[in-house]
């Protein structure tokens, strides 16, 4: 019987390695695609594992620059976090992976694609909305929703039976890594009374052992995106590597949160995004003095919608793109240098400079007189605004 071709979004981890074997048992010719978006050693491991599992077509693509340029930076320009905390590090990677998977499906003449996301999470939605956007005829196999290996323990047994080697930590948590963040879910974290153990965190030092002197950093933004650190230019990848390193040794960017998944389940996730946290902090401070007040509030009101769209998997939707265009349009004001101090898990502002600054010292200062502003005018301002309250 002729085998059907299927392109699998392959991370090299426990779930997707099992999926290779499982799909092969269902008579598929499995083609793997691994997006290199900065997950380090995992790429090499994925390649070796796919080979061991008899995959003939193994695609690996370096997408680090594209990830930062076309997904990370556009998102960061919103300066907004999902449900107050989450920097969307997984949500912004999925649309890129779906796009690349669909390219491979096209080039290899595959009618099927597969992913390792569970039926309980957001990633299945993100992947599949992307697949459908690029080719609505593609057939999607999501093994987690249909197989009987429906627990981590059953998966581990399957691995032992089929000689698939899995490292210790992957056994403990569901981990997703890229240049922007690491995320940890599942295992002991499912118990809300359990404090995340220190050796779970891979990308940040705890405050207890982080370096005990402050680090000063100047971040230069051009049209909303960071381009320099301490007056040196960095390309996208190196900028993140550098900021991740500094943030990491200073214990920056760890969170442990409960979030609302799109399908209505609450879940606990631990995230570490040292570099992204530094950029987000600096960007917010830049916005505060270069953006017009009403533009700022308008952007804020759109950003709530924007982050929900990104989280829920609507990266390719017309409304996300519309809001993105508005957000992008505002970035022309976001030029300047933000100097910060990083110490023991905290970032504080040292000073700020921008030639787009709207701050007017003469207006603001209690010690100076401005020609543009008369204090006596405030009396009328209050009189008129209080009228409603008086009536
Ligand atoms: N809860 C986060 C999100 O929905 C992270 C998901 C991480 N995915 C994973 N396979 N561990 O964006």
According to DSSP, the number of beta strands is 14
For the record, give the distance between the C-alpha atoms at the N and C termini, rounded to a whole number: 84 Å
Order of neighbouring strands in the sheet with most strands: 3-2-1-4-5
Total separate domains: 2
Q: Helical amount among residues, as a percent range? A: 40-55%
CATH C-level category of the largest domain: Alpha Beta
CATH A-level architecture of the largest domain: Alpha-Beta Complex
Overall radius of gyration = 24 Å
Ligands bound, unique: arginine
What sort of overall outline do the alpha carbons produce when their principal axes are compared? elongated
Biggest beta sheet attributes: 5 strands, parallel
* SSE pattern: EHEHEHHEHEHHHEEEEEHEEHHHEEHH
Would you give the CATH topology of the largest domain? Argininosuccinate synthetase, chain A, domain 2
Which structural class do the helices and strands define? alpha/beta
> What is the quaternary state of this protein?
single chain
Uncertain stretches: none
Q: CATH superfamily assignment of the largest domain?
A: Argininosuccinate synthetase, chain A, domain 2
Mean pLDDT: 96
Question: What fraction of residues sit in β-strands?
Answer: 15-25%
Number of helices: 14
């Amino acid at each position: 019987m002729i085998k059907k071709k299927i392109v699998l979004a392959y991370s090299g981890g426990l779930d997707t390695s099992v999926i290779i074997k499982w799909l092969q048992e269902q008579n598929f010719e499995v083609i793997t695609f691994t997006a290199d978006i900065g997950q380090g050693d995992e790429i090499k491991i994925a390649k070796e594992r796919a080979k061991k599992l008899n995959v003939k077509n193994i695609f690996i693509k370096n997408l680090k620059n594209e990830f930062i340029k076309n997904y990370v930076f556009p998102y960061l320009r919103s300066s907004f976090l999902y449900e107050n905390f989450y920097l969307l590090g997984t949500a912004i990677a999925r649309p890129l992976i779906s796009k690349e998977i669909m390219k491979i499906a096209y080039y290899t003449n595959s009618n099927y694609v597969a992913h390792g996301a569970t039926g309980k999470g957001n990633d299945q939605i993100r992947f599949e909305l992307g697949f459908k956007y690029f080719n609505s005829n593609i057939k999607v196999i999501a093994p987690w929703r249909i197989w009987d290996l429906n627990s981590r323990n059953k998966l581990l047994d399957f691995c032992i039976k089929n000689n698939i080697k899995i490292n210790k930590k992957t056994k403990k948590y569901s981990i997703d890594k890229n240049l922007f963040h690491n995320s940890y879910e599942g295992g002991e974290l499912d118990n809300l009374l359990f404090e995340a153990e220190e050796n779970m965190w891979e990308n940040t030092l705890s405050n207890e052992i982080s370096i005990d002197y402050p680090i000063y950093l100047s971040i230069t933004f051009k049209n909303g995106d960071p381009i320099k650190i301490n007056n040196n230019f960095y390309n996208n990848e190196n900028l993140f590597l550098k900021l991740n390193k500094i943030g990491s040794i200073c214990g920056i960017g760890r969170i442990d949160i409960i979030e609302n998944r799109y399908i209505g389940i609450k879940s606990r996730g631990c995230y570490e995004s040292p570099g992204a946290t530094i950029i987000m902090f600096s960007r917010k401070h830049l916005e505060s003095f270069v953006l017009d007040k009403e533009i700022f509030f308008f952007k804020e009101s759109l950003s709530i919608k924007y982050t929900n769209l990104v989280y829920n998997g609507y990266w390719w939707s017309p409304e996300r793109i519309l809001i993105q265009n508005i957000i992008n349009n505002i970035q022309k004001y976001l030029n300047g240098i933000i100097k910060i101090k990083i110490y023991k898990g905290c970032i504080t502002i040292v000073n700020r400079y921008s030639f787009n600054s709207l701050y007017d010292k003469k207006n603001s200062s209690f010690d100076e007189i401005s020609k543009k502003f008369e204090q006596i005018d405030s009396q009328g301002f209050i009189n008129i605004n209080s009228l409603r309250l008086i009536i």
